[in-house]
């Protein structure tokens, strides 16, 4: 599994979804610091709020899983949350994109957080993903 640093996060040439990333540039209110999503502890709470309104959240999360991103907030999920999902998927041959698209709890959470971001009521922590949610085997 590859290890990345903040320097690799964010839009890069040739990756279409990254051009819509809420964490990149002025739309996030964070300037263009790609390290903004590579924070620890309480700072991850604020970082995650940027993801709630991101148009490419699912694409970002798929990228994180498919490329083995170990650090940082990706798709609004912390390293800890992603590690739990990796453990849950151990032994599965279902591609991450397919797995995530069929994860109804994840999609519901994304929609709820998007709505909270839209009306200004988004707060961390939002509900953590349940361990027993229905996912592909
Ligand atoms: S989901 Fe979050 S980390 Fe991913 S591109 Fe959007 S704002 Fe950035």
What is the compact description of this entry?
This protein has 5 helices and no strands. It has about 140 residues and is mainly alpha-helical. The chain has one domain.
Shape by Cα distribution:
globular
Query: Unreliable runs, pLDDT <50, ≥5 residues?
Result: 1-13, 26-31
Helical proportion, percent range: 25-40%
Q: How many alpha or pi helices?
A: 5
Number of strand elements? 0
GO biological process, one term: cell redox homeostasis
Subcellular location: Cytoplasm
Organism: Salana multivorans
Protein name: Transcriptional regulator WhiB
Fold and architecture overview:
GO terms for molecular function: 4 iron, 4 sulfur cluster binding; dinitrosyl-iron complex binding; DNA binding; metal ion binding; protein-disulfide reductase [NAD(P)H] activity. Pfam families: Whib. Its main location: cytoplasm. This is Transcriptional regulator WhiB. Its cofactor is [4Fe-4S] cluster. This protein is an all-alpha fold. The protein has one domain. The protein has five helices and no strands. Bound molecules: iron/sulfur cluster. Iron/sulfur cluster binds next to helix 1 and helix 2.
